[in-house]
Specification:
Shape: globular
Largest sheet: 2 strands, antiparallel
Strand content: 5-15%
Number of helices: 21
Structural class: mainly alpha
Radius of gyration: 25 Å
Distance between the termini: 47 Å
Number of strands: 8
Order of helices and strands: HHHHHHHHHHEHHHHEEEEHEHHHHHEEH
Strand order of the largest sheet: 1-6
Amino acid sequence: MKKNIVYLLLASVLLLTGCANYLDQDPEDLNSMDKIFSSKIETTKWYNRIYSDDFMVQEMHYSGQIPYFWCTDESAYIMESFVRNIAEGKMSPDNYYGYTGYNLYFFVRYYQAIRHCNIFLENVDQCAELGEIDRRTMKAEARFMRAYYHYLLLRLYGPIPIAETSRTADQIATAQARNTLTECVNWINKEIDWVCENGMPAARDEKFTLGLPTIGAARAIQSRMALMVASPLFNGNTAYKNWKNNDGTVLMPQTYDKELWKTAADAAKTVIDMPEYKLLKPAADATFDEIVDNYRAVTTTWGADKNTEIIWGHPNSVQWYGMCALPARWYGWNGRYSLAIGMVNDFFMADGSVSRPLEEWFSSKKFSTEPGDGTIANTFWMFVGREPRFYASVHFPNQRLSYAYENKTDSYQDSDGYGVVDFWYSGLSGNGNTPGDKNTSGFSVRKNIPLDYRSNKQTGEATRMLNVPFPIIRLGEVYLNYAEAMNEYYGEAEQDEVLYYLNEIRTRAGLPAYEGTYSQEDMREMIRHERKIELAWECNRYFDVRRWAEAFAGSQLYQQYFKIPCERLTVMWITKNPDDTYTYERRTDLLRNASTQPRDVLLPIPETEANNLYSLTNKRWQNSGW
């Protein structure tokens, strides 16, 4: 019997670097394939690892290390040097993120995941102990996850090689070129279509499993990918006309195809029409605070009986994220997950109108004289009268709330556990109170923190360690995918349909519906603004601003959605005066050296990997512009 050894090289595309201790073991120390796949227990372990942190990184737990979490205009988080490197245009193939203690080199990691899936698919039929139904389901899941990891590579790096099989040691030097973008998309779609007809579960029993994909999840990923490839970055972008394989094949489509928007609209509508998914809405007579809590529950609540909006949630520990998001008053790390004031100001007002410009808020500084929805007296007027999503998503100065159990001996909060967010310089949570972790802008993220989260290490352990369903994709996003695609394809001809789904998102958030008639251009801006707010801090903004960056440097979209936001990071500086009044200043100098280039819309392949690939294949593997 031929003995197959687990060669933990990324042989599928000839990568030679491992990412975890397990992957760095000598192959002779590992079990043979025959031994693993003759046992149901060992086969199941191999299958389970497809979803493990080795490959599928927890977005919230590793949020300080993931570029698409904080390297956007949503954030003013600059404590990690890699964030500054990306925001300031200093990233390079040999200085990938600057600092990444968890080795989140996705090009390597995701191809290792693909190889792991391929080995499973090539060997699972050997396991006689595995029942036929379980085998069918696991094979469908493995094929879906293989396609999903290809999709993750595609959105970060552009056209990639498709790896349908694992390779043995004697196949390592076999050359493989990149597939074109169209080939990648067609292959991923074909795989997803197959798994939806051949064993992918339509639903999960969350009493026993959390975070596993379903048919709905697979179709939702198709929807997102379809929107991506219809967008300006990928649809007829002539800036990529010279990005070719050695044989001259152009990797990116050079002709605009309007029909891709129709494909994206149809893919989204397929998911919308699935009866098991509904927007999580507050009661018709809900109070303002209940609307706030309902929106907070969208990204933090498990269970089909409690949250019908999550299509695919990824179990994430809230511990690290909570410590970094909470102001220091609640045993946090000083709200180090800081937010840019421009992003904060983009939240709508309570009446649904767009906020006034920052200059107006600061030219006539006013403060509230009495409590209001979400605020207390003496709150800066910029934060008063905002929409519910603002109060659900943002920690702002003079906000009264609690993450603590009742603690009458703690002077940092009152007897009910409430305290005021004191992000002014001399405050407990301010810049001047600690030499280390700091809030740099006057705001920190509140979204994704569970409603029952408690910060105290002794009394709140159960909630500090909660797993929340960080949304890989949810119905609210699919509604917005559909609205965007319909507007781009039909324009004003289908405006009623577009407005219906856009208004479903707004009214759920406590805002009045849009009424009237709008141009296609107006609707485009309305939809993009809604995406920015509704999907904030869910790892969407990073990819949205890139896919909208048409034709790069000379285009209006590139300037508006990618270059300028990266260069103009604005924060708030607050000083508490001796008479208990406050001085608010607007500052824009955090990223003085900010610089963005067209190449930055796609990540570079790590230089060591590109060199390895070149030495083995004599093909240039680095991404366009790097």
